[in-house]
């Protein structure tokens, strides 16, 4: 998406919400586990003007013209990218906040389909813009859960709450340690000082597109539900480590091993982050990738090649980030090595005819907010 188009007189203001990178704790937010994302300095902005005819019209640089729907929209009414907007309007209405109508102009620099939560950024920016325009006071965690509901029940992607919580609650210079159970989740900001200590967090957008609304994410979710039923636990992330021995099916056993070991890695990573122990954090990230690749089976050749290549070129830790099956990988590396690492990944991709990757540095940014 490119720059926002102007909105005519009556404009109330502009709100924004960021994408996210998950440092560690992957596929744990729907099994009651801990996750540790950062909001990043790429964001979606929404300009808003109220209308009083019960209609919502939304323009965006990725669409031809605009999309209009009723403020009382129900799932199935709107398709394409605008369903994230309509879903947010619907989910707000389900929680008792029906807008009287609005014109919205959306723009974004969060790349689409790159595993950096462009959809959560869109939902959260629309949610804060509508809340701001209507004067609704809503706690950020509750608003994030409303956006998750939009994604689950309107868009039909069975995701957890991590992306919306990161986008809504991000803090500059901090990672967020999120406990996804019990409900409501809790969010604790943990200072993240790698930049001051000479490191950079690099994102490699592999250009292998991923989508959460397609099958495999839902399959993983169903497998974890089967495991919870088998073991008789409410939250799979709190199953005792030795429950792996009770599962005979090799695929389910591997899925459980990921959930249990990843939960332990998040706890250790939070300690490493607080202690500024970057090597330890890096090792945990790399171990997380191996677990996602081998036990949870959600990686992709482009992600594995990125991780291998950056580790060979000086990264102290690397992993896929987000749902997987494509999207982005991240690497923790000394800042002075970013250029060499970027070149090495581009060369490795060219050798095997993968699409040219996009590599950039991100830092922990603030969450959804009003800009003007
Ligand atoms: C996607 C989902 F949207 C999140 O809820 C989370 O499950 C993540 O994949 C995997 O950790 O981003």
Automatic annotation (TrEMBL):
Residues 270-349 form the GHMP kinase C-terminal domain. GO terms for molecular function: ATP binding; galactokinase activity; metal ion binding. The keyword rRNA-binding does not apply. InterPro entries: Galactokinase (IPR000705), Galactokinase_CS (IPR019741), GalKase_N (IPR019539), GHMP_kinase_C_dom (IPR013750), GHMP_kinase_C_sf (IPR036554), GHMP_kinase_N_dom (IPR006204), GHMP_knse_ATP-bd_CS (IPR006203), Mevalonate/galactokinase (IPR006206). It holds the Pfam family GHMP_kinases_N. It comes from the Bacteria. It is an enzyme of class 2 (transferase). Keywords: ATP-binding, Carbohydrate metabolism, Cytoplasm, Galactose metabolism, Kinase, Magnesium, Metal-binding, Nucleotide-binding, Transferase. Belongs to the GHMP kinase family. GalK subfamily. This is Galactokinase. It comes from Mumia zhuanghuii. The gene is galK.
